[in-house]
């Protein structure tokens, strides 16, 4: 039994309202991008689903695995297109069941168009009537299912559904600047933001000798892994030595606040980049109380006066939940590789409570506005992390 299409379904809520056309065209663009390099005939929008039309030399398994990285797909399945007559549906469904080797299938019939002489109940009864002659045993309690969908282009038949990533197509929620560190959390935050339709632009501040060295490090690899979910690979690599030397010059009395000042510096940097990139938000991997820089007081002091909307998708997650996601999405093994990040050279034993006013004061005492200009001048923008 040959498959003609891969059927792609999106969440139904998004079928309603004015978001629908933008949603579907973004999803089509993302599906085509994910299938770049694959052999297939076209991606078709039938109004209630997308269909990837296969060609004779398509690699179905490879296409299926790539579709597993596309946000906005609730489920998908390889399907056969058959004529919308009871005889043709039964004959072809039987072939499909025979080829699958599954002997007990629950039949789920649905008509997306109602212009057939038979209804969905009639499809199920026709199966029950013929069950003795067929490859499979219709069983309403079976966990495997045979889906029969009468549509305007014919009847689509498939066995089971593959769960998609869900969420919204990357791009429908605009662009965001993602503050990407080398740790476990921020790649997961990037993933969660992408899941809600955000197209990421990454910013990484590094303590290495050069931007090239940072790009060749695990940061470049993390971006490459994350890009399987969105295609986005744009990274601003910014050296941290200018920030460090300015803070040092301001004297040691501020040392225990350095982590919070650093966070403010990152936000200011992100804000500038967001403005030039037309990005509407900033994403971080912060979670309440996870480390001393992430107490409510410190998060609020570090982000005080930042005009760009800040998203913290991990805000209420436990570390083990975050680790679980990192493992599932493929970033964990890279995140735990040893790396000389800026925070590890920041002050030990940081203060758990700071105030916006104090961080403002340190910012001007250390002349960090100037450090921002200088750091931006030393940034490298890389659009391809390979
Ligand atoms: P992570 O696991 O993401 O490194 P963390 O638990 O180490 O987070 P912090 O070091 O307080 O926590 O960082 C909090 C957030 O600040 C990070 O999730 C990231 O979004 C941002 N951040 C930290 N360091 C950097 C950096 N060097 N460059 C860019 N963003 C950073
Ligand atoms: Mg970190």
What does this entry look like structurally?
This protein has 386 residues and is of the alpha/beta class. It has two domains: 5-163, VC0802-like (2-Layer Sandwich), CATH 3.30.2130; 175-385, 3-Layer(aba) Sandwich (Rossmann fold). Helix content is 39%, strand content 19%. It has helices at 20-34, 60-67, 86-100, 120-130, 185-195, 211-216, 218-227, 241-249, 258-277, 296-303, 319-329, 332-335, 342-345, 356-365, 368-377; strands at residues 5-9, 42-45, 50-53, 75-82, 104-111, 137-138, 145-151, 154-159, 162-163, 175-179, 199-206, 235-239, 281-283, 309-311, 380-382. Strands 1, 2, 3, 4, 5, 6, 7, 8 and 9 form a nine-stranded mixed sheet that branches. Helix 10 (296-303) packs across helix 14 (356-365). The longest helix is centred in the C-terminal third of the chain and has 20 residues, at 258-277. The radius of gyration is 26 Å and the shape is elongated. It starts with a strand and ends with a strand. It binds adenosine-5'-triphosphate and magnesium ion (MG). Adenosine-5'-triphosphate is lined by residues 179-181, 183-186, 203-205, 266, 284-286, 290-291, 293-294, 341-343.
């Amino acid at each position: 039994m040959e498959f003609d299409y891969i059927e792609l379904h999106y969440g139904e809520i998004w079928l309603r309202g004015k978001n629908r056309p933008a949603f579907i065209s973004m999803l089509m663009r993302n599906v085509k991008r994910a299938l770049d390099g694959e052999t297939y005939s076209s991606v078709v929008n039938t109004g209630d689903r997308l269909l990837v039309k296969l060609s004779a030399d398509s690699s179905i398994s490879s296409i299926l695995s790539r579709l597993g990285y596309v946000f906005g797909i609730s489920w998908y399945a390889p399907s056969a297109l058959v004529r919308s007559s009871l005889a043709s549906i039964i004959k072809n469904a039987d072939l499909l069941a025979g080829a699958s080797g599954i002997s007990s299938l629950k039949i789920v019939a649905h008509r997306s168009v109602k212009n057939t002489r038979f209804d969905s109940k009639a499809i199920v009864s026709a199966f029950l009537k013929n069950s003795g002659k067929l490859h499979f045993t219709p069983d309403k309690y079976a966990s495997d299912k045979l889906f029969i969908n009468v549509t305007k282009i014919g009847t689509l038949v498939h066995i089971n559904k593959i769960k998609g990533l869900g969420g919204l197509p990357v791009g429908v929620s605009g662009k965001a600047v993602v503050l990407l560190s080398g740790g476990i959390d921020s790649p997961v935050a990037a993933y969660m933001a992408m899941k809600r339709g955000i197209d990421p632009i990454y910013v990484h501040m590094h303590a290495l000798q050069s931007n090239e060295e940072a790009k060749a490090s695990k940061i470049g690899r993390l971006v490459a892994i994350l890009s399987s979910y969105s295609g986005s690979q744009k990274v601003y690599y910014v050296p941290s030595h200018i920030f460090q030397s300015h803070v040092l010059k301001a004297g040691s009395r501020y040392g225990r606040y350095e982590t919070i000042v650093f966070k403010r510096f990152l936000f200011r940097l992100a804000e500038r980049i967001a403005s030039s990139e037309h990005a509407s938000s900033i994403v971080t991997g912060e979670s309440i109380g996870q480390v001393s820089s992430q107490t409510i007081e410190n998060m609020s002091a570090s982000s005080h006066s930042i005009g760009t909307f800040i998203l913290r998708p991990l805000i209420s997650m436990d570390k083990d939940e975050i680790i679980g996601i990192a493992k599932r999405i493929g970033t964990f093994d890279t995140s735990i590789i040893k790396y000389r990040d800026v925070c590890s050279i920041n002050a030990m034993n940081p203060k758990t409570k700071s105030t916006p006013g104090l961080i403002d004061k340190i910012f001007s005492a250390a002349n960090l506005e100037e450090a921002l200009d200088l750091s931006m001048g030393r940034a490298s923008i890389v659009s391809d992390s390979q």
